Amino acid sequence: MNLKITTLAERPDLATPLWNLAEDWPEFILHDPVGWSLIGRIVADLPEYVLVATDEDDKVVARAFSVPLALRARAGGELPDGGWDQVLLWAFSDLRHGKETDTVSAIEITVDETARGKGVSGQMLAAMRENARARGFSEVVAPVRPNAKHREPAAPIDEYAYRTREDGLPHDPWLRVHVRAGGVIEKVAHASMTVSGSTAQWREWTGLPFDTEGEVEVPGALVPVHCELARGYGVYVEPNVWVRHVL
Predict the structure, then answer these.
(1) In the CATH scheme, what is the code of domain 4-189+242-246?
(2) Which residues contact 81 (CB under 8 A, 6 or more apart)?
(3) How far apart are CA 234 and CA 202, in angstroms?
(4) Span 65-90, pLDDT tens digits
(5) Cα radius of gyration (the chain)
(6) How far is 82 from 32, CA to CA, in rounded Å?
(7) Which of 24-63 are b and which e, b meaning 16 or more Cβ less than 10 Å from the residue's Cβ?
(8) pTM
(9) Average pLDDT score over the chain
């Protein structure tokens, strides 16, 4: 697919259209408090790390968010178990305190439903890598949400993350895109994102009864949601897979 990919800093007029993509995120994901409070700040405060893809008609068909952070100053650059939530918190703490950054973390690549299946996600990942390289960074890290794991919510993430096909590439399609681009799977972020809510909220978000104690499989969730029925709440702790791209 023929795309023009620019930073939001270059095309500030796309700040509103980039939110209008036809997405397929499950509703409960939108209630992660870290993402809810900080994702919009990437657009407002870090437009040079926001990539927007437009088609021949100048319609926005994909976006990619990333953030710079001081990773090597923290435990020598070791990737955190906290994953997606953690890098967002670190990045905006570093921005607030004026810390020198040394690494770019991917946050999100979203492709409009009309442009899926055409290699757009791979193009956006390549553009994110190039954008980081052009800004003087030597690596991009990514807390990858494996996009087929929701089909196997009971499968252990430590097995799933390293599962491969006969050709040696990852079983998961989105991990496969990263590895083909030069990324290396490094570890699992077991607590990458946490969404908690009352059982009433979980019923609203999922349409499920949430009337049993224990593990509840939810469409779109990578692992089951833990339901504490007697206490009236449910908690979802999502694992992601850390991939490191050396540029």
Answers:
(1) 3.40.630.30
(2) 189, 190, 191
(3) 7
(4) 999 999 999 878 899 999 999 999 99
(5) 18
(6) 13
(7) eeeebbeebebbeebbeebbeebbebbbbbbbeeeebbbb
(8) 0.96
(9) 97
